[in-house]
Write a structure and sequence with these properties.
Helix content: 10-25%
Radius of gyration: 14 Å
Order of helices and strands: EHEEEHEHEEE
Number of helices: 3
């Protein structure tokens, strides 16, 4: 039987879609797939797609996160080369090596891979 679910796509809140676009493209290396100013943003990198919706409540992105399976060391090096200062990936007691990125609005991106 074919898989009924092909992927998951996080939909994160953005206090300013233009700021989100600049950060995800410039600092994280994503490409814009769709940008409707004031309405919606879709970015993609290496098959990982993230959507953004406009939000006025600053507490929402500060309480939002998503988990992305990834090569944490390679991403850390790539992000550093793009000028983003981040702590090194860390091995966590739950068996994952993780790299954390907080976007300009407070959304937490957890990039992780099994140890």
């Amino acid at each position: 039987m074919a898989s009924l679910i092909q992927s998951t796509v996080p939909v994160l809140p953005s206090l300013d879609l233009a700021v989100s676009e600049a950060f995800y493209v410039g600092q994280l290396g994503f490409q814009v797939r769709l940008y409707m100013p004031g309405t919606y943003l879709i970015v993609e990198r290496d098959g990982c797609e993230i959507h953004f919706w406009p939000c006025d409540d600053t507490s929402v992105p500060r309480n939002t996160s998503c988990y992305v399976r990834a090569d944490t060391d390679a991403l850390h090096a790539d992000f550093a080369q793009r000028g983003l200062a981040l702590a090194l990936p860390q091995e966590r007691e739950w068996g994952m090596r993780e790299l954390y990125v907080i976007d300009p609005h407070g959304n937490l991106l957890k990039f992780g891979e099994p140890v």
